[in-house]
Amino acid sequence: MRYDPLRSKAVLSKPVGPPAPLGRRGFLGLGAALTGSFALGARPAIADPAQHSPPADAPWSQSIGAGVVDRPYGRPADTEASVIRRNVPWLTAGAESSVSFSPLQDLHGIITPNGLFFERHHAGRPDIDPAQHRLMIHGLVERPLLLTMKDILRFPQVTRIHFIECPANGGMEWRAAQMNSLQFRHGMISCAEWTGVRLSTLLEETGVRKEAKWAMVEGADGAHMNRSLPLDKCLDDCLVVYAQNGEALRPEQGYPLRLVVPGWEGNVNIKWLRRIKLGDKPWHSREETSKYTDLMPDGTSRGFTWLIDAKSVITFPCPEKPLDVPGLYEIRGLAWTGNGKVKRVDVSMDGGVNWQSARLHDPVLSKALTRFTLPWRWDGRPALLESRVIDETGYVQPTIAQLRKQRGTNSVYHNNSIQTWQIKPDGSVFNVQLA
Amino acid sequence: MYSSRKRGLLLAAVLFATAAVDFAGAAEPGYFGYGSVATPAQIAGWDIDVRGEDGAGLPPGRGTVDRGAEVYAEQCAACHGTFGEGEGRLPKLVGGVGSLRDERPEPTVGSYWPFAPTLWDYINRAMPMAAPHTLSADDVYALTAYILSLNDLVPNEFVADRNSLPKVKMRNRDSFMWTDPRPDTMAKPCMNACVDAAGVRISSTAEGKNLTPRTSGPLDTMQPK
């Protein structure tokens, strides 16, 4: 995309070092190239920012690079340093009970890299010794069990791709458009390949007493974060997972063990999972009464609104990735639904007057992010871009006006409304809402 | 869900369990046999949950409003304010009664929480934030009594214990619907001339609001404007 110094006042947190070994000439050359593309404050005085492009050869093509295990784990290129989870400092009292947002504007595909998966902690991120971690399953079971991580790894293994979304994603936008950014407007959604054991397998192992109707699931963090789940959901498709995208869970995602509750709001996917207790009634914990309940205009509230309704968003263009000159573009986006699979995504360029169906990209998986694209020849005139998902139940993503009509503006959670991106003639993109 | 063979096993296990006194013999071992039976002592250490509606799980112990005021001053006031008014953006514990239909509702223990035992449970499991689950049961009862009294939900002579807490009538108790009424919108997937083009109007924009942290370079530290 176009280099825009106004949008890229990026200052690297650490100076960029060149891969060793490089001669003095190569060092200076690469340094200039990096600062040229990444704008370290004032633009450096380089005659030609493409001095290492054809016909010239580049210093990295005329030297030997770093050897294997130079970075034994690996990390993104230094020039990708801006692609990180970010928070809204003014949103919460502190960082321990807070949230960070995935940089959707820089992500491709349906899998969120582990280091970029959004975070929501209620009492900070604990650092847990897996050798001492235990999962206790008790209550209305036949045989209360205490499992070590070693025990859990022995059970039959399953792998599934599922999104997790915080129900407060978009919670700031009920009254009006607020966050001028894809990352901050929609970034409390991520999707990963999870590996672990079916919760139903563990519950068959303990046996379930016939009075059991609910499960209380609890974390080992300082919040002892707990929620009630209907037993039917636990036995349907819930997973107790220890791996994320092929490696152990990240501490931010619940290392060494978390629950995945496919298609349901993020906070029930208990991280640092340590206890499952079966009971005959729900618990009405603080996190399902005082919080994660939806206040309606008449003063009543909805509780146990677990399902993530169908939602979609155009990820290119977006405020962080504006258009350049008029011409042919590929509109790209993501769609998802807690109801199962995405059936169709429509895109409008005129604020919802006319729509055309986008192409869905394989794989289209149940309760996972699904990619869509649509070619678009932009004529340089103002446009109002929207996407609208229809899921396999026939549910159609609503407008914010339709949602407000039902729920007012104080329900905080479950804002799955259609996003409108305003395109200006200069290609810049803004988050707007339509009357 | 379960095969009939498993159902049979479960049934047998239930029958057996009623006769058994020893937890270890309470059921057939699982199919895999991994892990160990959780002992009563192990379970007792972690079995902290309290049910909101009926207080099931509340432990022995008791606490007065006066004792709660002392514990509160020591453990809670720095964040939640001397009278529960909340410091800075930290949560208010009082106020907001009658505000739930307002433009800016204030959901607090007094105005919003439906069940008093949930307050005991939350303080016990999650507070004080820097040292959660370190207070004695008596002190958690005392704090619960004090916060309920700050909200005029109990008299000053109230003593909180496992019997009294479930009986406290919370103001918002009957205002929750516990079954999800969604889908509550009925949008149609219209394709052409779905709305009047002349009526398409931007009602709000994030442009120029200066609420959005930067999305390149180091993390932003912006504060409310």
Could you give a short description of this structure?
The complex is a heterodimer of chains A (435) and B (225). Chain A has 435 residues and is mainly beta. Chain A has helices spanning 24-38, 149-154, 182-186, 199-206, 231-236, 400-407; strands spanning 98-100, 119-121, 134-139, 145-148, 158-165, 189-198, 214-219, 226-230, 239-244, 247-248, 258-260, 273-279, 294-295, 301-302, 311-316, 327-336, 342-348, 356-357, 359-361, 370-378, 383-391, 420-423, 429-434.
Could you please describe the fold and organization of this structure?
The complex is a heterodimer of chains A (435) and B (225). Chain A has 435 residues and is mostly beta strands. Chain A has three domains: 1-64 and 76-82, no CATH class; 114-302, Sulfite Oxidase, Chain A, domain 2 (Alpha-Beta Complex); 311-432, Immunoglobulin-like, CATH 2.60.40. Chain A is 11% helix and 28% strand. Chain A contains six helices and 23 strands. Chain A has a five-stranded mixed sheet with strand order 4-3-12-7-8. In chain A, strands 5, 6, 9, 10 and 11 form a five-stranded antiparallel sheet that branches. In chain A, strands 18-17-21-22-23 form a five-stranded antiparallel sheet, with no helix packed on it. In chain A, a hairpin with a 7-residue loop joins β17 (342-348) and β18 (356-357). Chain B is built from six helices and five strands, in the order αβαβααααβββ. In chain B, strands 2-3 form a two-stranded antiparallel ribbon. The radius of gyration of chain B is 26 Å and the shape is extended. Chain B starts with a helix and ends in a 20-residue tail after the last strand. The chains are: A mainly beta (435), B mainly alpha (225). At the A-B interface, β3, β4, α2, α3 and α4 of A face α1, β1, α2, α5 and β4 of B.
